[in-house]
């Protein structure tokens, strides 16, 4: 990527981001982030998005798989995934600078229809991948961010620049992933239906046969395609959702640990505590107290 473009991208993000490590929604589909030090991991279900790093390094974990992307690289997430993410490299002298851009299926579908490329390949691109930024992708991102200095131009010009970003992604290295987001009959869309069901019913026992039916596949085909897209099994996906939801509840309230475990679908308090500690490194009670105290103090828990 051209050094001049990278320098302008860095300057724009630094000027408009909030310099405290929190995400700032600069535009309806765009968030900016600046951090002067590494941040603690945050677990959340990430919806389809394009995220770039203008400076520093960000680390994303999907179960036991690690994805690092650094200065001049971007990440694509093409289906709802339970990820744990944090800024891994940042200093006060060289703060981390990043941008996130929401990938809306309807916007991608409209572009594919306009271009006449609406046929699904029925392939199984992964649900997450890292690539290098290119000049033709960074250019519309920069032009979009320039609008933040001229707010009156945003209602007129922003949509066109967002379309150009999507078009560059559709035709970029991860274009097959991005196209699948907008195709209603793609394998990713089929798996997406099962994912949405799991997210809505995470506390219930799941039946693979039912998920396969929702996806319109045989059980064998569903297992294969689900893992191909998400890198994990349906049961592992459900466990990630349960644990992330439990952690959110423990941070926001001082609920009894066993009650939280039951609320997210665990019948055994010991199993809940064991899996929670394996996932987050601390027992649930201690972790919740630690994070609540940090939140009240306005700091970050290490």
Automatic annotation (TrEMBL):
<dbReference type="InterPro" id="IPR009057">
    <property type="entry name" value="Homeodomain-like_sf"/>
</dbReference>
<feature type="compositionally biased region" description="Basic and acidic residues">
    <location>
        <begin position="275"/>
        <end position="295"/>
    </location>
</feature>
<dbReference type="Pfam" id="PF06719">
    <property type="entry name" value="AraC_N"/>
</dbReference>
<keyword id="KW-0238">DNA-binding</keyword>
<dbReference type="Pfam" id="PF12833">
    <property type="entry name" value="HTH_18"/>
</dbReference>
<dbReference type="InterPro" id="IPR018060">
    <property type="entry name" value="HTH_AraC"/>
</dbReference>
<keyword id="KW-0804">Transcription</keyword>
<dbReference type="GO" id="GO:0003700">
    <property type="term" value="F:DNA-binding transcription factor activity"/>
</dbReference>
<feature type="domain" description="HTH araC/xylS-type">
    <location>
        <begin position="192"/>
        <end position="290"/>
    </location>
</feature>
<dbReference type="InterPro" id="IPR018062">
    <property type="entry name" value="HTH_AraC-typ_CS"/>
</dbReference>
<dbReference type="InterPro" id="IPR009594">
    <property type="entry name" value="Tscrpt_reg_HTH_AraC_N"/>
</dbReference>
<keyword id="KW-0805">Transcription regulation</keyword>
<protein>
    <submittedName>
        <fullName>AraC family transcriptional regulator</fullName>
    </submittedName>
</protein>
<feature type="region of interest" description="Disordered">
    <location>
        <begin position="275"/>
        <end position="302"/>
    </location>
</feature>
<dbReference type="GO" id="GO:0043565">
    <property type="term" value="F:sequence-specific DNA binding"/>
</dbReference>
